[in-house]
């Protein structure tokens, strides 16, 4: 497990975007060899998406041979609703890059048979050859995707009832009106993300500090589902200084002492431009 600590949100976002960029380019995707990327929503990854768009516009990165699978989607919210995760992904990322819409997979929260939709999503991931890199974010209670506290750590894509803490946190996107916030969602399971060949989790802000502490300094616990990734062979937690406030001083010093190693993963920034 790696813990990458940057000074602030912008630098953490840039480091994560550089890592994703380099992983895609080093993979050398092609028509018969797609890179498969798992993606999150929420406020935390927005800075990362902006940098990836920048790399694409500069000609350094193409998503032509990339397939994506999103973590979750609300149930019952129209696809074109401004707060649906379909809208989020297209407005904040997909419409700004060269990904084939057929390769951008997002769960359908309005499917007639929700369980069949979840099963089909798992099948599509398998048919794509599995996820090469799954990027995730967490809630203040340590949930990843919508795997709320108490979720099975071997769970698969399924229908979940949202915890009140999550509903309260998401109310800001619905004019603060709790009655407008969806109470159910389709989500990949912890086991689904654990199956990825590599996992990168973005954690920023003081309000996520206790969750980061639970994620890396205490044991694996289904009440803090992000803690499961202690057992993944290739997990990177990317955080800012504020998110480390609950960590032991020696933990922070240890991982900061490895930053020269971590920075070799993103420097130099590779490019798809000819000759680079």
From TrEMBL:
It comes from the Eukaryota. GO terms for cellular component: cytoplasm. Pfam families: Glucosamine_iso. InterPro entries: Glc/Gal-6P_isomerase (IPR006148), Glucosamine6P_isomerase (IPR004547), Glucosamine6P_isomerase_CS (IPR018321), NagB/RpiA_transferase-like (IPR037171). Its EC number is 3.5.99.6. It is found in: Cytoplasm. Belongs to the glucosamine/galactosamine-6-phosphate isomerase family. Gene3D superfamilies: 3.40.50.1360. It catalyses: alpha-D-glucosamine 6-phosphate + H2O = beta-D-fructose 6-phosphate + NH4(+). The keyword Iron does not apply. It is an enzyme of class 3 (hydrolase). One of its GO terms (molecular function) is isomerase activity. Keywords: Carbohydrate metabolism, Coiled coil, Cytoplasm, Hydrolase, Isomerase. This is Glucosamine-6-phosphate isomerase. The keyword Hydrolase applies. Residues 14-232 form the Glucosamine/galactosamine-6-phosphate isomerase domain. PROSITE patterns: GLC_GALNAC_ISOMERASE (PS01161). Pathway: Nucleotide-sugar biosynthesis; UDP-N-acetyl-alpha-D-glucosamine biosynthesis; alpha-D-glucosamine 6-phosphate from D-fructose 6-phosphate: step 1/1. Homohexamer.
């Amino acid at each position: 497990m790696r813990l990458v600590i940057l000074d602030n949100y912008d630098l953490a976002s840039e480091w994560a975007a550089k890592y994703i960029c380099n992983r895609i380019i080093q993979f050398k995707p092609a028509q018969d060899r797609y890179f498969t990327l798992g993606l999150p929503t929420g406020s935390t990854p927005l800075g990362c998406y902006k940098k990836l768009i920048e790399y694409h516009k500069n000609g350094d990165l193409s998503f032509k041979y990339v397939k994506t699978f999103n973590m979750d989607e609300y149930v019952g919210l129209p696809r074109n609703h401004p707060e649906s995760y379909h809208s989020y992904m297209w407005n904040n990322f997909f419409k700004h890059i060269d990904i084939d819409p057929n390769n951008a997979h997002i769960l359908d929260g309005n499917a007639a048979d929700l369980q069949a939709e979840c099963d089909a999503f798992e099948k599509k991931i398998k048919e794509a050859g599995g996820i090469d890199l799954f990027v995730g974010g967490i809630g203040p209670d340590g949930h990843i995707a919508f795997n709320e506290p108490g979720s099975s750590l071997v769970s698969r894509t399924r229908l979940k009832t949202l915890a009140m803490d999550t509903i309260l946190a998401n109310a800001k996107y619905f004019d603060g009106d709790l009655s407008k916030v969806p109470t159910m969602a389709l989500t990949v399971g912890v086991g689904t993300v654990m199956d990825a060949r590599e996992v990168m989790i973005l954690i920023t802000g003081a309000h996520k500090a206790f969750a980061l502490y639970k994620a890396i300094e205490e044991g694996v616990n289904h009440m803090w589902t992000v803690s499961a990734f202690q057992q993944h062979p290739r997990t990177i937690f990317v955080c800012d200084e504020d998110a480390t406030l609950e960590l032991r001083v020696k933990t922070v010093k240890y991982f900061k002492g490895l930053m020269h190693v971590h920075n070799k993963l993103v420097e130099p920034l590779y490019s798809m431009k000819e000759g680079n």
